[in-house]
Structures are given as C-alpha cells and as structure tokens.
Amino acid sequence: MNPLFSFNARTGEPLGEPLATSTPAQIDATVQAAHAAFDDWACSSGAQRAALLRHLADGLEAQREALVALADLETALGPVRLNGELDRTTFQLRRFADMAQRGEPFAVLDDPAVAGNPPVGHPAMQLHRMPLGPVAMFAASNFPFAFSVLGGDTASALAAGCPVVVKAHPGHPALSRLTFEIAERVLQSLGLPAGLIGLVQGAGVEVGVQLIRHPLIAAGAFTGSTRGGAALQAEANARPRPIPFYGELGSINPLIALPSALAARGAELASLLAGSITLGCGQFCTNPGLLVLVDGPETDTFVPQLAEALGALQPHPMLAAGMRKAFDTGVQAFIDAGAVPLLQGPGTGLAPGPQLLQVSAQRFIEAHALREEVFGPSSLIVRCDSLAQVQDVLAAVAGSLTVTIWGANEDTAEHRALVRAAMRIAGRVLFAGVPTGVAVTAAQHHGGPWPASTAPMTTSVGDAALQRFLRPVCLQDAPAWLLERAGRPC
Amino acid sequence: MNPLFSFNARTGEPLGEPLATSTPAQIDATVQAAHAAFDDWACSSGAQRAALLRHLADGLEAQREALVALADLETALGPVRLNGELDRTTFQLRRFADMAQRGEPFAVLDDPAVAGNPPVGHPAMQLHRMPLGPVAMFAASNFPFAFSVLGGDTASALAAGCPVVVKAHPGHPALSRLTFEIAERVLQSLGLPAGLIGLVQGAGVEVGVQLIRHPLIAAGAFTGSTRGGAALQAEANARPRPIPFYGELGSINPLIALPSALAARGAELASLLAGSITLGCGQFCTNPGLLVLVDGPETDTFVPQLAEALGALQPHPMLAAGMRKAFDTGVQAFIDAGAVPLLQGPGTGLAPGPQLLQVSAQRFIEAHALREEVFGPSSLIVRCDSLAQVQDVLAAVAGSLTVTIWGANEDTAEHRALVRAAMRIAGRVLFAGVPTGVAVTAAQHHGGPWPASTAPMTTSVGDAALQRFLRPVCLQDAPAWLLERAGRPC
Fold first, then answer.
1. The domain at A24-249+453-484 falls in which architecture?
2. What is the phi/psi pair of residue A410, to 5°?
3. Burial class (CB in 10 A: 0-12, 13-18, 19+), B134
4. What is the pTM of this model?
5. pLDDT (tens digit, 9 = 90+) per residue, A393-408?
6. Which end of chain B is more exposed for a tag (fewer CB within 10 A), N or C?
7. Among residues B85, B285, B372, B373, which one is catalytic?
8. Domain spanning A254-430 has what CATH number?
9. Which residues pair with A378 in a beta bridge?
10. Is residue A455 exposed (0-12), middle (13-18) or buried (19+ Cβ within 10 Å)?
C-alpha cells in the first residue's frame, strides 16, 4: 500500500510525515456509523437538514483564510480561483438547504383511487421518495472544495436524507482533513451523530474499493478519470447486491467555431478560447479539448490567432507531479496518432506550457486514441471539409459533458442538423461563451452519454443532483395515519 | 444454436416446423433501419406519436380473437386473463399516446439568465429531454401482450421518440410474429418507416447478446429472470460505450400478515392469498413468494387455513415445460435449504400443484438459497418471534418490487418502524389487497433495489416509464430561432 503524503503542488515536495491511511477496520466502523445514523436522518425534517447544510457553509466561511491557504499549497490553483470555488461550495450547501426547507425531498404525487375494474380502475396510490442510505462519495482532485468533502455530492446527499462517507482525494489530504474537522464540529454543535459525515483516506485504490464494496453502502458518487470511475462502477455492479453509481468521468467537450463566427470576431474568440483552454491549467472536466473547424479562409486566419493567444499564456503548475507526467504522455500519444503540433509551450517545472495540435476529421474519426481526454492545457483542432463532416466528428465523440457551437445564429436546415447532432451526444449545448464554468442552477445538466457519465440521465451539478439519492416508492392503500404523516412513517 | 419452435403450452408439443432464427445480418439490418428512422422520429410531434400508438391499439383490438387464441395456445394462460391483458396493453398504448399528445416528452424547464457574477449570476439555460435512440426491448414470457412486442416498454419508448427493436420471447414466437405483423401494417398505413418497430427472434441467447452489443443501440429494456437480466446488463456495461439498461428482474414480494389482521379476518385473507399465489399459475413478478408471520395463536390458526385454501386450487399448466422443471427444482432447493413442506400439491402434467413451505426467520436470514425467486405457485412462510425480527427478515430480502403489510392500522412506533423497513427495500408498499395486479397509473412504481431492478430509480409500469428513454440536455444561451422552436431543432 502506498503511503499517503500531503504535497506542495508547486514543488512536488512532501509536506511533513506521511498521513494515516484508513485501515479496513476504520473503514468498516465509518460505514457502520453512517448506517446507524441513517434511519433518524431519513426521518429528519427539511428544517433540520437545512440547518446542518447552512451551518456547514458558515463553518467553511469562518475558516476561509486557512482553508484557501492550505488548498493553494496542496493544489497550486491560486487564491482567486480557490476563493471563488469556496463561494460556489457554500452557495451549493445553502441552495440544497433551501430545497430541503421547501420540502422538495418530501414531494408527493397523489393518485387517488379510481372506481371500476382494471385497467381503468385502481386503488389509492401515492408516490414518495425514500433516501437510499449511506452514500460513498469519491472526491475529485481538481475541485478541492466544490467536488470534495463538503462539495455538491455531499450537500445533495445530506439534503436527500442520506449519510455520506467521503473518500478523500489523495491530492489534497490535509485540506480534506481540515474540512472534515469543520464538519465534525458542526455535527457536534447541532447534536447530530458523527456518523452522518465520515471520512476515509488513502493513497492507493484499496480504500475506495473497500468502501464501494461495503454491504451497507447504498450508492456511489464519483468525479474523476474514466479509468478510475469505470473501475469503481464495475465494483458497484459486481457486488452481491449492485447499487446505483453516479460517476462523472472524462469529457473532451467539442467546441465548433463556424466560419461566420470567426469572420465576425475571430481575434476576440481566439483570446476567449485561449483563456478557457488554460484556465486552472486546463484541469476542468469541461475544458474544451476539441476544436472543430471548417476549412476556409476564416479558419486559416483564426488558427494562428489562437496559437498566438495561447502561446502568450503560461498556466500555473498542475495539481500533482503525476498529472504533469500524464499530460505530457497524453499529448505525445496524440502526436503518435497523427496529430500535428501547432504550439508546444515548453512549460516550467510542474507547470506545463499550452499545447495546440491539429488533425484532419478523417484521421480523427479513424483513430480512437485521439478521442481520449488529455487533462491539462491542451486542445486538438479537427479540420472538417463541411458541416456534414462536423456531424460525423460529433458522432465519433459519442459522449461529452458539453458541446459548444459558435455561429449557429440563423434558422437553417444545416444549423438544425448540427444542433441535433450536438444534443445527441452532450448533456449541455452552449451557443455562446466557453464550457468552463458550470452554473449551479435549476436547469443545469452536468452529465452526458458515456464516457461523460456512468448515469447520463442524472446530473452532479444543479438542483436535480438531489434526485440521485431519492428512490421512488409507491404507497398503495396507505392507512389514514400514514397519510396524515404525509407518507413519512417517522 | 437451438432451433426456434412454437409449442403448445398445455402439451409441450411443437406446433409445426421450426421458425426462422434471425441471422446476424438480419439483426444488423433491423438495427440499422431503426437508426435510420431515429432522427425523424425524434423530431415527430406529439400528435404523430399519439396517432401511431392509437393505431397500434386499434390494430390489436381488431384482431383480438386471433391474438388471444394464439396466445392461449402458446402460453396456456386462458382467455379471461389474456383478454384482460390485451385490454391493459391497449390501455397503455393509449395512455402513452395521450401523454405524447399533451406534449409531456417535450416539457421544458426554463431558467432565465440571472445578472451578476457566479455563483449567483448565470446565463440563460433551458432543460430539454432528448430521446436516447434505438431501444433494444427484451420481451417477457409471462405477459405475452403487456410486456411483449407492443407492451409497455415499446409504447413508452415510441412515445419518447425512440425506435424499438424487439427481441421476441421464444415462449410465444408465433404470437410475437402475428403482433409484429399488425405493427408493420400500421406503420405502412401511416406512411411511417418500417424501421420504427423491428423484431428479431431466436431460441438461444445469441440473438439477444448480438442485439445489446450493437453499437447503434442506445438503451436496453428487459423483463425476465435475474440471471438473464444480469447477463444482458453485463453486456450493456461491457460495450466500448455502455448504455442505460432497464432490467426488471426477480422479486419475492414479502407479504407480512400481522396477528391483528389474522384475528379480524383470517379465513378471508387465507382465501385471498391462496388466489394470489396461484393466479396465472404463480407466474407473476409480483407473486407473493414470502409470507412473513409472527408466532402466536392467530398465526397457528391461519397457516392451516391457508394450506387448505391453497390445496383446493389447481393452477393451469405453466408457460413452458422448462419452467415446470425449474419450478420443481426451485421448490426442492428450498427443502434442501431447510424449509419444511406444509403442502405439496402433486399437479398434473405441465400443471404444477401449489406448494407451501415454512422456515424459521433465523434460518431464512442465514440461508441465501431461501431468498431465490421460485417462479410458480409456491410460497414460503417465514416464522418470526417478534416485529423486530420481521424487520430483520426484510433487511435480508434487501430488494423487492413490493412489500405488503396487513394489519398496520394504528399509528404505533412498531408499525412506523415496520413501514420504514418495507419502504427501504421495495418499490411499492401495499397495505391492503395482494401485490399481483399492477395498475397503470401516474404514481405506480414497478421497480426496486436489486434484484428487483437494475435501475431502481425507474419504473417499467406507469407514466414515469416514459422518462427512461429521455435524456436531459441543457441549452445554454440558445439563439432566438431555437427558442422559438421550443428548443427542438427539427
């Protein structure tokens, strides 16, 4: 088993002694405590859930300075981004608090009895939603607040009435521990059981595998690599009793810049795009990794503009030394598969330089290797000879969190076909701006066909994330006392 | 590859020559035709979808006599049940037609732009639902109409905008063909592509496996055994690009008869229960296979009443000779695992006699083998010494389509705990009547934790079945022309 270290992300040096890895007995005890807390928490009121979530948000804000400093040390993401991410995290906690307070987890679909024989006649039925049980939450490396210990998965699961056992990401173990200690104090101050929010950690895969295999775990939520997510999903399915597994995996986020858009404001778009490709050192699941361009003079003008805008930017160091290595390997694999480098920023130390590559649509469609996600500040231009070929490129991508289309401003048959092709493979289709930056709203859908998500009908960001942890249960001919309790036998 | 025969279910004799098994080329051509029909059908209006579904219902009714006669020959389910099932099937088709006509597949969640910086500010977003694409539909043996060629899965997928390729069940191949020919004529009469509804068939597993592996298949829907469903789900997950798989598998449907209910009307309940256990020769996914009773004088009186009521009933022959054999094997496995037979109806030919067995709660919780579904007219009594032990029995069951509780008429802490335990493992909890008979309504939930379903958040019966085939897609900053088209680029 690998030892668990906290690393300085800018130097790659370990910060102090190795941290404790959760033992099998500790993991079991943490899940048992979550299970023990489940029955009461499933019966908690919306106000009780809201109070917990709001106190967690307050607790994070009260320690903002220490949290951001430690996060910056372990991730190198910088204080501006990290303060913004902390804002988003507390916003999420309070938004799910509001939903719980409004009673959304307790919504009932009432279906009164209809007299007569079937199929028309039927008994009185009511549809409720039951929290699933303890959720195993696998934190992401690239959002040390918003997709980590007290991130959106934890907030939505708690709002739904489920305890959570967090598998901390080994990329920021000290921050995970500090965040967890805030949660522990909040639970204690509210007189809630410590088992409601658990934490396990370790550098290797063993801890996560033991967690998802635990018979008392009722669901999994994961944000990370396709390989890691697929492995955990396979574990979830291989259990004697498989459980729902919500994995948000890799995505290459095609961005289609049509000639009309480039003609109108190519230079401005080049600058916007260069910023999106390098934002957070390209370490976003919505990073635009694929630029789909149509041959013509506008594209010929745009590509060097983009290369120049990109070349002027030097991203900050990556989250971890291993990621830098994986980034270089990924870029080289593209070159080996036939992509031509247009810009090869040299980078410095753990900070890679921006990379821009180009390949023909035909080659892209042939070569599976070119559809892999390269996590970091890199993008691959795919040159198409027609809008029809753009559709073929999208079909080859097959699954993505987002597709962005610039320039489909007129209602033409070609634009409609292009939008249909985009909607067929993506969870979100943008017509302006860049895909990085995922709003926490009612209509957000952060998911998509494989490999974007293991559960493309669900979202890990936005209000509907709550529904992942509630299972419909129909009550038929419920007795009067249960109806008076609105279907909650608590 | 096994040859495909139509069998007389009452005699086990083949009806004529072997039927053609779909070749790999035919399967591919059927899926290709479905794929070719997808883009247009996804763009069809609610009125167009409703017209197709209503004409399919009309087409079934126009041939009711021939369909029921052929179904009876191949399944032995009898004309009363089969006419009722045909009514349910046309009811489903028309109900999904109404939903399509009302525009339910095209519902939009509008999320206007909010000014300001994130996390509060966000662009204009709209949530739509996209049909998934061609659906592979695996028909069930035990519902030759309602879960077969034009059953609920097909109706809901078509209403959602998805073409369907049906894998016919080999238990009623001639009926499947006759039903399919009705569909073919309806499609032709409406000028719709034949590819919208395809049929493939074969006696072995090869045809189904090739179908679910086909790269142009976008989802699977299955009703049948745990083994068969788990194998197909594994295939769906092993694809280079996994797809959603909705499998409704085995269920043992615990029925808890509390002493108060038995004291009030034990004889009447014994008769009701005996009818439910033997209905359709016990070949229902909601058949009450587990009777959970609490030790005491009421139970001591009830058990012989039930054995007597059951012993007076002789079920009709099973759907197929292989099922009869599996039934006998399943009952024997229970005896081998420690269950004591209370009634061993001898049966005649392919018609099994009713079986009633009994075991202690402790033994039931220890022995996994006693939690297997025995498909047929059999039920296992589990004797508990307390209501707390009833909860332990439910926890051991872990997943079921239904749980029925008789006698929880007062609001007590014990009853509330029991209902919570039931809601934790079931998709539907009944407080009166028997679980057989699944109403097609808005609040129905026909699904549950494994092994009841591979997708416990979804239902295969009722209005929400439609949602299985629609994937959320968020449109961000959609252009005016697309908003004018209500987000449908058609």
1. 3-Layer(aba) Sandwich (3.40)
2. -110, 150
3. buried
4. 0.98
5. 999 999 999 999 999 9
6. N
7. B285
8. 3.40.309.10
9. A355
10. buried
